[in-house]
Amino acid sequence: MLFKNIIKGKIVKGYRVASGISKNSPYPSGSIKMQIPYFKKLGLDLYNYYPATLNINIFPKKFELINPEYTFRNVKWFADKPAEDFSFSACKIIHKNKIYEGYVYYPRPETKTAHFHDESTIEIITKYIKDVYYSSNIKLFFNSNEV
Fold it and tell me: Which parts of 2-128 are beta strand (E)?
């Protein structure tokens, strides 16, 4: 796997629905925790990752998935919402000189019902990272054939 694309970014506050922290979240345990079993059945095991996302702003650059490693269509993970499509691409994060493996988490906008991000914000699923805060600077490494 070629991790050629290197991008600098900052951690920004998201909607806090993926983690379930938001008081307005319809998913008290978080959407990621609820989705993980569905992704596992489809071939992507995320159980070793923290059940939330890091939102990373890469402005002025824009994010685009070209050929994601995984795309799952019509995932019906919540009874009260329509099925959604999701794409994932492996990535690496560097924070304080430590490397963390993870995945770009991309609920496809054409099937997503709420909580949209701008084109400069990337959601990443990774292991829990100690000492990462809003405004923390990080580096992202992507597979140049996918992102």
Answer: 3-12, 54-57, 70-75, 84-95, 98-107, 121-126
Q: Is 61 helix (H, G, I), strand (E, B) or coil?
A: coil
Rg (CA), the chain: 14
Q: Which residue has the tokens 């951690």?
A: 11
Residues with Cβ within 8 Å of residue 23, at least 6 apart in sequence: none
pLDDT of 24-34, one tens digit each? 655 566 678 88
Span 86-141, pLDDT tens digits: 999 999 999 999 999 999 999 987 776 655 567 889 999 999 998 988 989 999 99
**Could you tell me which residues are beta bridge partners of residue 98?**
95
In what helix (H) or strand (E) does residue 139 lie, and over which residues does it extend? strand 137-143
Domains of the chain are 3-143 (2.40.30.30)
Residue 41: phi and psi, rounded to 5, are -60, -30
